[in-house]
Write a structure and sequence with these properties.
This protein is an alpha/beta fold and 396 residues long. The chain has 2 domains: 170 residues, 3-Layer(aba) Sandwich (Rossmann fold); 209 residues, Up-down Bundle (Dehydroquinate synthase-like, alpha domain), CATH 1.20.1090.10. It contains 16 helices and 8 strands. Helix 7 runs parallel beside helix 11, helix 10 packs across helix 15 and helix 11 packs antiparallel against helix 13. The model has no long low-confidence stretch (mean pLDDT 97). Bound molecules: 5,6-dihydroxy-NADP and zinc ion. 5,6-dihydroxy-NADP (NZQ) binds next to helix 2, helix 5, strand 6, helix 7 and helix 10. 5,6-dihydroxy-NADP binds next to helix 2, helix 5, strand 6, helix 7 and helix 10.
Length: 396
């Protein structure tokens, strides 16, 4: 039976060529007085995007202050810096210009400004979130889906802990999405983005509970689309339709649409496994996901081979046989081959990391929040199972 659900997507999406020209007027509609323009290392300045945005703000008479320097796997220290700057400058709106890392950092700043006190408390689940300062974004990378999700993931340098904080208060007021802004992405980041988009839908797909027929079909259609356009973009990074499809898929894959009406909340073990890899080894999130996927999928599929087999049939048109386990394995192999075809790493070696046994032990311990939780839905994973999955990815 279809499960009850709440679908909450308050973010206004302005999508298309030159959409960033509307930044000033969209910010003005928020009725704020001073904006923090938050961005990453260099891509937004180099491409001229920051200049266009600040011009658009000036044209609307909006005062702003800038803070760049957000790095992939965004750091808590930058969030602290942003909170301090915003307090000093009287900022009342945050504009993130970038990908998931910049948006997540903006959400961290938003939480900190709203509550006061130590913002890490929300990522370590010490205090409940009650609100967030308003945030908008100009998206430059189709991947994390943070532009429409209720999630923020921050890395605390003290202990290299990468943790998420989820609350609807952090959902963006608006998201400006011009697919052309992603033309400048290195091929590696486009690939990482495609994997992350797929995983947000696949995490919601792998459940043992009943699912909604429409949601399954939407999920499978989204995955087929990303598989198709990831290959198109590998050949031609300037393909507008490819960029547009990936950008919209990024948002739809993580705004709740591809899980609505499903009874389980999803699996999410691959994401949690990756977060420890990102925290300890600073790998790109999407690359970490494809590097752990094969090992995870082979470890868990026997709990629900039908779900894997169906995905292979729907996404890659694999024919079904009487043997569901072998169909499931064929599906896992086909996803693996697809990742290889877009140059996504499929094990730790290809990811460029070589964790020692002690490091695998440490990642596994951290992954259970030091013994406080298990992972997964399709198969529940404790520390020993987590260790096996990491070890298999290291040995592959
Ligand atoms: O810093 P700059 O110079 O801008 O370079 C960035 C960065 O090095 C570059 N880039 C971005 N747009 C570009 C560009 N380069 C050229 N042209 C452009 N148009 O890309 C690099 C990666 O950026 P980043 O923001 O880190 O990538 P992504 O969007 O994949 O975000 C990854 C982060 O999001 C988290 C991940 O864990 C990771 O920390 N996630 C956030 C989620 C959420 N909030 O809902 C969900 C995800 O599952 C994920 O965990
Ligand atoms: Zn992700």
């Amino acid at each position: 039976m279809v499960a009850d659900f709440t679908y909450y997507t308050p973010t206004k999406v302005v999508f298309g060529k030159n959409a960033e020209a509307e930044t000033g007027s969209l910010v003005k509609m928020q009725g704020c007085k001073k904006v923090l323009v938050h961005y990453g290392s260099e891509s937004a300045r180099k491409s001229g995007l920051l200049g266009k945005i600040t011009t658009s703000l000036r044209n609307e008479g909006i005062d702003f202050v800038e803070l760049g320097g957000v790095v992939p796997n965004p750091r808590l220290s930058k969030v602290h810096e942003g909170i301090e700057l915003c307090r000093k400058e009287g900022v009342d709106f945050i504009l993130a210009v970038g990908g998931g890392s910049v948006i997540d950092s903006a959400k961290g700043i938003g939480y900190g400004l709203y509550h006061g006190g130590e913002v890490w408390d929300f990522y370590s689940q010490k205090r409940p979130i009650e609100g967030c300062f308003p945030i908008g974004c100009v998206l430059t990378l189709a991947a994390a889906g943070s532009e429409m999700s209720n999630s923020s993931v921050i890395t605390n340098e003290d202990g290299n802990l990468k943790r998420g904080a989820n609350n609807d208060a952090s959902r963006l007021k608006f998201a400006i999405m011009n697919p052309e802004l992603t033309y400048t992405l290195p091929a590696y980041q486009t690939m990482c983005g495609a994997v992350d988009i797929m995983m947000h839908t696949m995490e919601r797909y792998f459940i043992n509970e009943p699912s909604m027929h429409l949601t399954d079909e939407l999920a499978e259609g989204l995955l087929r689309t990303v598989v198709h356009y990831a290959k198109v973009l590998k050949k031609n990074p300037m393909d507008y339709d490819g960029r547009a499809n990936l950008m919209w898929a990024s948002s739809l894959s993580h705004n709740g649409l591809t899980g609505a009406g499903n009874a389980g909340r999803g699996d999410w073990a691959p994401h949690q496994l990756e977060h420890e890899m990102g925290g300890m080894f600073d790998v790109a999130h999407g690359a970490g996901l494809s590097a752990i996927w094969d090992s995870w999928a082979r470890f868990v599929f026997d709990q629900n081979p039908e779900r894997f087999a169906r995905l292979g049939e729907k996404v890659f048109s694999l024919s079904r046989t009487a043997d569901v386990e072998s169909d499931a394995l064929k599906a896992i192999e086909t996803f693996h081959d697809f990742f290889v075809s877009i140059d996504a790493p499929t094990n730790f070696k290809e990811l460029g990391i070589n964790p020692t046994e002690a490091e695998i032990e440490e990642m596994s311990e951290k992954c259970t929040f030091f013994g406080k939780r298990t992972l997964g839905n399709i198969k529940v994973l404790g520390k020993e199972e987590i260790k096996t999955i990491y070890t298999n990815a290291a040995r592959a």
